[in-house]
Design goal:
Blueprint lengths: L1 H13 L6 E8 L2 E5 L7 E6 L6 E10 L2 E6 L11 E8 L1 E4 L7 E2 L16 E4 L16 E2 L4 H6 L2 E2 L3 E6 L5 H11 L4 E7 L3 H18 L1 E6 L5 H20 L3 E7 L1 H14 L11 H11 L3 E2 L4 E9 L8 H9 L2 E4 L2 H5 L12 E2 L8 H19 L1 H6 L8 H17 L9 H12 L19 H7 L2 H7 L5 H7 L4
Helix pairs in contact: 3-4, 5-6, 6-7, 7-8, 10-12, 10-13
Adenosine-5'-triphosphate binds next to helix 3.
Amino acid sequence: MKSFFKKYINIVKSTETILYTGYVTGVKGLMIESRGPRSVIGEICTIKYPNSEKTLLAEVMGLEDNKVKLMPFGDTKGIEVGCEVIATGHELQVPVGKNLLGRVLDATGTPIDGKGPLEVNEYYPALAFPPDPMTKKPIDRRIVTGVRCIDSLLTCGKGQRLGIFAGSGVGKSTLLSTIARNTNADVNVIGLIGERNREVMDFINRDLGEDGMKRSVLIVATSDTSSICRLRAAYVTTAVAEYFRDQGKDVMLMMDNMTRFAHAQREIGLSTGEAPAQRGYPPSVFDMIPKLLERTGTSDKGTITAFYNVLVDGDDMDEPITDKVRGTLDGHIVLSRSLAQQRHYPAIDILQSISRLSRRVCGSQTLKAVTKISRLIALYEENREMIMAGVYQKGSNPEVDLAIDKHQAIEDFVTQEEDARCTIEDTLNKLSALAEIEIPDEEYVENPAVNRKTIAELVKEHKVEDVVNENSSASRFDISKNLNLQ
Ligand SMILES: Nc1ncnc2c1ncn2[C@@H]1O[C@H](COP(=O)(O)OP(=O)(O)OP(=O)(O)O)[C@@H](O)[C@H]1O
Ligand SMILES: [Mg+2]
């Protein structure tokens, strides 16, 4: 009997019986200022429009004596001094459940696809901490993106986080939509932040299509929404992905794009009185980026593989947002404008791109083939001007000769039609034929490197102490040669 009541006693105990309210005292720039209510930073408040049932959601951004600074999730048109402000007692929460699949939400987690309300009874906080690094599962399974160039030369693992970097109009969104359609992840969670209205409809109807949509959740904050919407949409996207990861799923999270997220925080930071630092970005922008990006990846239950698009301002790869995002992630895919101009799609610049974890998810023969092809691409690029000018004499360097012979075949291998889907079997078969290196069947599985020895194990097997003693004057390079480390 006691336990029967316990549930209700707990509900009563946790119920806030006092309604904290305040009233609007002014609207300054993007901010609404109010006197009261008693609230904490990050808390969601509702503001009542005068003579209407309508309310406006706003987040507490600053506190000063009894003055509250609120950032509204909608238009401030119609708000006047004296409007009632009510504290909800909680931060931004996201409705979660299996029913989210196939739905389109806004930055507050409200459906905007006209398919009716969501039927869920669980909520996740939009602002959460990353999973405990000590309990994270290792990344040892390959994810298939369906893009041949990535699946072969820049192989990614389930739970890896990558950035796609390029200037405007080079093909970031198109590459992301190809991955969304073709990946073998269980669920896609896609955040469209600061995109044009037209692009959102194109993404849903043209790029994803009905089948893609069935296993996807979209969170949308277009360029015309308020800066807090664009900012929080990235958090809501991450929270939805976290829910599916907690269900043990392999999730593919895609964010288009992180630069708009940084712009939104810049607008908010500057309007709350922060000083501009690097290129006008206040310090909070650089603090927020890793906090958001570290939430994806593996946990003890499932994985979130993440692709973050970054619009590189003025094609300058050293601009601060690009630099910060690149440094936080486990790999970067750089798209080149000159390749796009030659209609070489996807315009991936292989020599500038890197997947830091590909060694963990590829077999050793596959790695050999990848190394060979990458080297041939590098050699061709190094000698491109001489080859083009007809100055290069065939026979001067057998490796360059091979790079020239294979050039067209490599170009065909790394490019693909926008609507083409490349299976991993086909990709590895083609890679093997191109590199003339046999890839055994056991490397076609999802986790070909899982039984490969770690560096620590190899060192242990070779009794490193003996080798180090023998080579006390040798350099580290010489020692690893003795150990025959690969
Ligand atoms: N794989 C592809 N095949 C054919 N055309 C492509 C491909 N990728 C990109 N394009 C062309 O490039 C144009 C721009 O691509 P996209 O919109 O993906 O670029 P973006 O980098 O996302 O641009 P923005 O920075 O403006 O968002 C497309 O409209 C299309 O014409
Ligand atoms: Mg785009």
